[in-house]
Amino acid sequence: MRKPVVAGVIFVLLVLGVIVYSTMTLAKHRVEVCIQFNGRTNCKTASATTEEFAHQAAVNNACGEIASGVTETVACEHTPPIKVTVLK
After folding, report:
1. Engineered SS bond to 72: which of 14, 19, 55, 67, CB 3.0-4.6 Å?
2. pTM
3. Number of helical H runs and strand E runs in the chain
4. Which distant-in-sequence residues (6+ apart) come within 8 Å of 73 by Cβ?
């Protein structure tokens, strides 16, 4: 192979390595949240730099699957979780 092609492949692999490494090291907290809303229950796990961010992300993800529309989503996100588990 030519030098520019090899250099390009090395560069792409290096960038991918940095992305994977930074993603793995930033997520220091993992939280699982279970939400019950309108007779439906959903549990989701999220990771983030703080426990609060991970909790909110898990709530948003869980409500995204069991609520429809903006009004229901907001109401779901303000519903107290039935279960919260701090995993990390």
Report:
1. 67
2. 0.72
3. 3, 3
4. 63, 64, 67
- Are the C-beta atoms of residues 27 and 49 closer than 8 Å to each other? yes
Reading the block at residue 40, the tokens are 């439906």
| DSSP code at position 58 | H
> In angstroms, rounded to a whole number, what is the distance separating the alpha carbons of residues 62 and 83?
12
Q: From first to last of its 88 residues, what are the pLDDT tens digits of the chain? A: 788 888 888 999 999 988 887 776 777 899 999 999 999 999 999 988 899 999 999 999 999 999 999 999 999 999 999 999 998 7
Sheet of 29-37, strands arranged across: 40-48, 29-37, 83-86
Quote the CA–CA distance of 47 and 27 in Å, as a whole number: 5
